[in-house]
Amino acid sequence: MVIDTLCNQAVGKDVAVVGLYCDFHAQQDQSTTNMLGAMLKQLANREGIPEHTREAFQEAKTEFGGRGLLLPDMVDILNKTITSLPRLFICIDALDECTAKHRRELLESLRRIVRVSPGTRVFLTGRPHIGDEIVGCFGKVHQIPLSPTPSDIKSYLEMRLGDDSIPKAMDDELRADIMRIIPEKISEM
Amino acid sequence: MSSSNQQVTGNINSFNNIVNFIADIDTEGRLILQWLSPLEPQKRHQAVRTDRLDGVGNWVLETGEFRKWSDAETGSVEQVLFCYGNPGVGKTYVR
User: Fold this and answer.
1) Are A102 and A125 members of one domain?
2) Residue A29 and residue B39 in contact, taking contact as beta carbons nearer than 8 Å
3) Rounded mean pLDDT of B60-81?
4) How many Å lie between the alpha carbon of B91 and the closest alpha carbon of chain A?
5) Same-domain pairing of B60 and B31
6) Domain that holds residue B75
7) What is the CA radius of gyration of chain A?
8) Do A71 and A157 sit in the same domain of this protein?
9) Could you tell me where the DSSP H helices lie in B25-94?
10) Is the ipTM of this complex over 0.90?
11) What is this structure's pTM?
12) B4 and B18 together in one domain
């Protein structure tokens, strides 16, 4: 997985990796502020809580008995935190699963972050239709179309056949058919 | 993926250390982390990792696009990489 690969490469180096998942079922909780806050939490666990974040917390606590952060404040805190990092990877999965409003805000916030911090890299996954929004926001981006390779499909099928709870129902011919026909059908999709 | 045990240990140390660290952070620190966000993406990450078949989708990491994006010196390339595909092709598991 990308995030684990990046983490492994990062061990012993001055590189931080943060990861977020968007989910249809959690759209309410996944406000842009909460998403960016989750990145800060991950960074705080790696680097400790920066002094400016403590100060912002103390300030918010005294107002209305403890206020939440607004999006511009959150972006500001993130930018302050990131400037001390030579290289940061931000990985966000399933960007198409957040609401259109959250996605717009999130992309705009990321745009502000990468502009301030040229060492930051952003990895996004999603369905093809959000590509235009991403390009519209960042200008040029790297793009990789994903589809399982025949060898991906074969290793997955072998794993599933190995897990078969009724192995007696399987014979060599059926197994060979499965291994031949399913990858063929998928490559036609 | 030859040294998978070693790798798993490394992964746990690097990404899921949030659990260990929270125990070390002072009371105010814990309040600050809660104040920053209620989300805990490392839980989902752990679930995906457990569920994943090793090696599938690794070709993405070998592509020129990926290498250019991840290795290039600061400021010399586009900073954003978008991997796209239809539902079910395995986007989450590549990530």
Assistant:
1) yes
2) yes
3) 79
4) 6
5) no
6) 53-95
7) 22
8) no
9) 27-36, 41-51, 59-62, 64-71, 91-94
10) no
11) 0.76
12) yes
Are A42 and A18 contacting, i.e. CB atoms less than 8 angstroms apart?
yes
B interface test, pick of A43, A88, A121 with most B CB neighbours within 10 Å: A121
Pair A107, A133 in one domain: yes
- Count of structural domains, chain B: 2
Residues A117 and A183 in one domain: no
DSSP run (H or E) holding A185: helix A172-188
pLDDT tens for each residue of A69-111 = 889 999 999 999 998 888 899 999 889 999 999 999 999 999 9
**Once rounded to an integer, what is the mean pLDDT over residues A127-156?**
86
Inter-chain touch A156–B21, beta carbons under 8 Å: no
Same domain for A36 and A12: yes
Q: Are residues B62 and B93 in the same domain?
A: yes
Give strand pairing partners of A89. A17, A121
The beta-strand segments (E) located in A32-159 are: 87-93, 120-126, 142-145
Interchain pair A7, B57: CB under 8 A: no
